[in-house]
């Protein structure tokens, strides 16, 4: 059986779809228009699909429950498919690729490719990067223009330099079973999309050449900006762009002059502001209000970081203890 899908709104969450046309549409909702071919000869698939659109990055889990093939041009976006179980076979302009757990297949934006065999036992963690988002962020993260020459491998070894990115994506995928509304929050989504993108670019981009001497001026610019607006959804790329350097160079400069990472400095600033608000807080102020005001997307993690810093909980400070 063959079905041709159309494009629909993103951010779909669906489970156990047993109709080929509906299954094809649901996958197009979250990812790409495509041509789907049933290789199993079954009347009904057993599609399990859960996705979330973070803004520029879509993350999802997908299991067809049948042997299928998919032809797609990947319009306007890159796709990275990570088999969690089973085997994924594909063919593109650079030849054949077979990925199993521990590997990922990379599909380039606006480039026709065919997944020649997606097995019935193959579950995939799929990460979609909007082309404009990934190429813009790569420019900022690497500190040099790459949009016309962003070169990605056909396959990633997830046990090598990409292991950190894989761990982050895996951890986020576990949230798909729970608080989707939290990760769909625009502030939280922007932070998560920035983290996923930065980790991916740093994993696949060539290593930087010899570093120039660290410059204290760029450190001061970043610290001043963090103090001025700590509640902003800062990403590593934002800070690097402000400093006029790459993410790697900025991290090295902070380590040299400050002895801490930019994100650790931002955490301290946010905790200081939150502590001051809690000390002064009264009436309708809640711990969650204060956490979100200062850029903490997860109240539980905020409370844990706060207690490590101050030896007490935010709730106790708010109550005046």
How would you describe this structure to a colleague?
This protein is 41% helix and 22% strand. The chain has 321 residues and is α+β, with helices and mostly antiparallel strands. The protein folds into 2 domains: 170 residues, Jelly Rolls; 113 residues, Arc Repressor Mutant, subunit A, CATH 1.10.10. The strands form 2 sheets. The chain has a 7-stranded antiparallel sheet with strand order 2-4-5-12-7-10-13, with helices on both faces. A 6-stranded antiparallel sheet has the order 1-3-6-11-8-9, with helices on one face. The radius of gyration is 22 Å and the shape is globular. The N terminus is likely disordered.
Provide key terms for this protein.
321 residues, alpha+beta, Jelly Rolls, Arc Repressor Mutant, subunit A, 13 strands, 41% helix, globular, AraC-bd_2, AraC family transcriptional regulator, DNA-binding, transcription, DNA-binding transcription factor activity
Element layout with pairings:
Elements: E1 2-4, E2 13-17, H1 20-30, E3 35-38, E4 47-53, E5 57-63, E6 68-72, E7 77-85, E8 88-92, E9 95-99, E10 103-107, E11 113-118, E12 123-130, H2 131-142, E13 155-157, H3 163-174, H4 180-183, H5 186-204, H6 216-228, H7 236-243, H8 247-257, H9 262-280, H10 287-293, H11 299-310, H12 314-318
Antiparallel strand pairs: 1-3, 2-4, 3-6, 4-5, 5-12, 6-11, 7-10, 7-12, 8-9, 8-11, 10-13
Helix pairs in contact: 2-5, 2-7, 3-5, 6-7, 6-9, 7-8
Pfam families: AraC_binding_2, HTH_18
Domain HTH araC/xylS-type: 220-320
Organism: Rhodococcus aetherivorans
């Amino acid at each position: 059986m063959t079905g041709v899908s159309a494009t629909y709104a993103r951010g779909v969450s669906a489970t156990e779809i047993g109709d080929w046309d509906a299954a094809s549409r649901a996958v197009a909702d979250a990812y790409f228009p495509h041509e789907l071919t049933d290789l199993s000869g079954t009347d009904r698939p057993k599609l399990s699909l859960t996705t979330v659109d973070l803004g520029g990055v879509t993350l999802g889990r997908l299991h067809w429950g049948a042997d299928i093939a998919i032809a797609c041009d990947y319009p306007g976006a890159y796709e990275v498919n990570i088999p969690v179980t089973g085997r994924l076979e594909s063919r593109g302009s650079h030849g054949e690729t077979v990925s199993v757990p521990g590997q990922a297949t990379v599909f380039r934006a606006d480039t026709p490719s065919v997944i020649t065999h997606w097995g019935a036992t193959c579950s995939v963690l799929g990460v979609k990067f909007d082309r404009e988002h990934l190429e813009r962020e790569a420019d900022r993260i690497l500190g040099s223009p790459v949009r016309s020459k962003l070169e990605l491998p056909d396959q990633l070894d997830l046990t090598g330099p990409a292991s950190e990115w894989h761990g982050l994506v895996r951890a986020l995928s576990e949230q798909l079973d729970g608080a989707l509304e939290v990760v769909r929050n625009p502030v939280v989504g922007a932070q998560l999309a920035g983290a996923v993108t930065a980790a991916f670019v740093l994993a696949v981009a060539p290593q930087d050449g010899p570093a120039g001497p660290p410059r204290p001026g760029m450190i001061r610019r970043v610290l001043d900006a963090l103090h001025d607006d700590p509640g902003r959804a800062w990403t590593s790329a934002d800070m690097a762009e402000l400093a006029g350097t790459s993410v790697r160079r900025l991290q090295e400069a902070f380590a040299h002059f400050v002895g801490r990472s930019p994100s650790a400095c931002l955490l301290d600033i946010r905790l200081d502001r939150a502590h001051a608000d809690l000390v002064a807080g009264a009436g309708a102020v809640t711990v969650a209000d204060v956490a979100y005001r200062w850029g903490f997307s997860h109240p539980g993690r905020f409370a844990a970081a706060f207690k490590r810093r101050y030896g007490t909980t935010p709730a106790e400070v708010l109550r005046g203890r």
